[in-house]
Structures are given as structure tokens and as C-alpha cells.
Inverse folding.
């Protein structure tokens, strides 16, 4: 289906993946089943925009897999192979949107925008936020460039990196607890207030062409296992060791404070690293960077054991960084190369060039008054 407003000056492709924005009542609860065309029909189009819909899959985002995300990554790259496409909007469930957005951003080298949005209230409800979020996402996708992958929700524009779901049910679902929003959208304006920092983009991994949702047959591509283990009072190495025993090639340790655990966990990290497992350390604290301050199992010892600190990235996105590293390395088995690449993804952002905006009321301002 194609919808046009005012001659189709800007051509936007909407990729539908499911989520609350596409969820309808199933008798006992909501589940994604509305098509992308159904979702698009609920929203007005910004002036001068033509929209085409791709129904990629339709799942609740709690069921998202790396195979789904890689299929989406491949679809984004294939869509941008058409020079006539001006931008992409992805409708996605909110539960794992932060992971998908970050994976796409790590591999996004095109100046054209990819914008993820969704809803906190289901499809077809009288107070639904999906139509407004979709309209705003289309406005942003038809306006900006050179900003990487974005999350647009409740009138706010967020960079993919660092943005997480911070509200379970409220309409203003996303923020970066360690940084300001990227901008805002409303009244047919897009105002960009700061520039995102991003590492040099990765090439598309071979796995994006070999993995497919539900592919478990002889030709299936074995995606690397990356596990998340959380430390807490009374925490011990049991689950970390179990992850290694289960074949994890990467582990994200969710530590306390600025990146602290116990001497026993630090020893388990050293053992895992010695076996070629990538270990990244984040924190269960919502905001702020990690820091090598404490010994006795703290970040000082975890880094000495071979783990990498994730800066302000929290668990879900830290896991994506580890996964992207393993996919980029393609099973090379070179721990030094993998560690160097992961360090670059975690610690090596470069400031983007100034954002561009086109025409009329679709304006972007590098410095704008914050709402």
C-alpha cells in the first residue's frame, strides 16, 4: 500500500514489526496482529510525504530474537539500496525497542534517517498514542539527516545509543538517563538540540543474510549466545559459570554501583576470559558512568580480570554491543581483535556532523529552547 500527501515530496518506507502499536484484544490480553497498513491508516501523514509499507513480521517485542533483528537490519540496508527512499520508520514494540535501535545504529552508515517508534496503548483504543507517535516519526524521518538511528516517542527525539525504556506504562516511555534528549517534534517542526555521538559504523554482518526467524534446519546459522548475569547481595559466580558452561561466547555482568562485584565473581570473570569469552560490565544503577574505583571484587579487579566497562550503556544495549562484536568477528577466534572491537563500540564514539533539515516548517535547530 502507498499513501501520499501533497505529491509525495519525501518518500518514507514504514517497516512494521508488531508490538503494542499493532496489538488488538485477543480475549485474555493484547497481542500483535494488525498489519502495517492497518497501523498506518490510523495516522495522518505529514505534508509532502509518500509512505510505503513493508510487513516484515508481527510479534510482541518480548518475543524478539537476534534472528528477527538481523532480518530487520538486512531489510533496512536493502531498502536504502534504493536511492529514491528518503527515510525509514520502523514500528516496534517497546519492550526491546532499545536493543533493536542500538543494533541498527551500530551498523548504520547512511545519512538517511531510521526512526523507531511504537505505542504504550494498544491499536484502536480511543486514547491510543500510536497514531501521534507514528505521525511524529514520519515527520522526523522526512526532515533530518546524519543523525543515525533515532527513537521518536511522545514528542521527543532520542538517539539510539543510551536510550532505554524508563516507564512501563506512561506515554513518555523512553529516555537516556545519562544524557539529554536529542530533540523534540511538534506543530510540524523538528528541533534538534544536540548531536549524537556514535562509533564508526560496522559493516553489515554475514549473519544478517544467513539467520532467519524460526530457521532451525540444517542450513540455520548458529548465532552466538550472549548472556546477562546480575550481581546482588549474596551474589556468587554460579550463574556466570553456568552461562559459560552453556556455551556463552559473551557475558554482560550487571554489577552494583559504579561496576562492583566480589572477588569470587572477579575470579570467575578471569576464568571466562581465559576461555575466550567476551565479558562486559555494566551496572544496575539507572544513570551515570562506570569507574575503576574499588578493589575487593570491584571494577578495578574486574578490569584486571579482562572485562570491559560499558560506560553509560546499560545491560540490554551492552549485550547488543557484545553480540555485534561477535558477529563482526565472524568466529575468528582472536580474543585480542574481539576485545579491541568491543572497546571501540563501548568507548569510541565520534561526534556526528551537524544535522540537516529541509524546507518550510520542517526545521531543525542545533540549539533550541527545551520544553
Amino acid at each position: 500500500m502507498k499513501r501520499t500527501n501533497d505529491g509525495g515530496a519525501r518518500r518514507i518506507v514504514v517497516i512494521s514489526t508488531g508490538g503494542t502499536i499493532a496489538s488488538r484484544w485477543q480475549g485474555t490480553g493484547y497481542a500483535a496482529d494488525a498489519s502495517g497498513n492497518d497501523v498506518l491508516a490510523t495516522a495522518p501523514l505529514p505534508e509532502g510525504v509518500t509512505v510505503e509499507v513493508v510487513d516484515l513480521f508481527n510479534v510482541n517485542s518480548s518475543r524478539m530474537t537476534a534472528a528477527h533483528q538481523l532480518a530487520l537490519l538486512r531489510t533496512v540496508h536493502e531498502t536504502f539500496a534504493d536511492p529514491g527512499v528518503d527515510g525509514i520508520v520502523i514500528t516496534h514494540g517497546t519492550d526491546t525497542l532499545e536493543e533493536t535501535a542500538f543494533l541498527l545504529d551500530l551498523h548504520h552508515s547512511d545519512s538517511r534517517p531510521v526512526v523507531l517508534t511504537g505505542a504504550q496503548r494498544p491499536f484502536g483504543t480511543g486514547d491510543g498514542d500510536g497514531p501521534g507517535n507514528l505521525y511524529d516519526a514520519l515527520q522526523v524521518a522526512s526532515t533530518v539527516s546524519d543523525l543515525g538511528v533515532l527513537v521518536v516517542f511522545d514528542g521527543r527525539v532520542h538517539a539510539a545509543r543510551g536510550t532505554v525504556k524508563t516507564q512501563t506504562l506512561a506515554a513518555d516511555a523512553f529516555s537516556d538517563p545519562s544524557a539529554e534528549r536529542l530533540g523534540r517534534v511538534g506543530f510540524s517542526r523538528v528541533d534538534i538540540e544536540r548531536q549524537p555521538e556514535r562509533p564508526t559504523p560496522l559493516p553489515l554482518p554475514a549473519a544478517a543474510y544467513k539467520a532467519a526467524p524460526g530457521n532451525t534446519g540444517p542450513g540455520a546459522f548458529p548465532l552466538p549466545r550472549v548472556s546477562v548475569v546480575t550481581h546482588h547481595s549474596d551474589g556468587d559466580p554460579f550463574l556466570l559459570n553456568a552461562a559459560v558452561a552453556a556455551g556463552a561466547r559473551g557475558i554482560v555482568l550487571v554489577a552494583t554501583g559504579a561496576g562492583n562485584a566480589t572477588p569470587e565473581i572477579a575470579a570467575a570473570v578471569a576464568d571466562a576470559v581465559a576461555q575466550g569469552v567476551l565479558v562486559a560490565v555494566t551496572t544496575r544503577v539507572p544513570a551515570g558512568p562506570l569507574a575503576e574505583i574499588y578493589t575487593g571484587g570491584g571494577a578495578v579487579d574486574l578490569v584486571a580480570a579482562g572485562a570491559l566497562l560499558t560506560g553509560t550503556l546499560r545491560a540490554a544495549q551492552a549485550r547488543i554491543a557484545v553480540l555485534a562484536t561477535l558477529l563482526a568477528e565472524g568466529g575468528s577466534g582472536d580474543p585480542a581483535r574481539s576485545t579491541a572491537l568491543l572497546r571501540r563500540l563501548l568507548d569510541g564514539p565520534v561526534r556526528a556532523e551537524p544535522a540537516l533539515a529541509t524546507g518550510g516548517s520542517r526545521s531543525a535547530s542545533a540549539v533550541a529552547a527545551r520544553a
Q: What stands out?
A: Residues 2-198 form a domain with the Rossmann fold fold (CATH 3.40.50.1170). The first helix runs from residue 36 to 41. The chain has two domains: 2-198, 221-347.
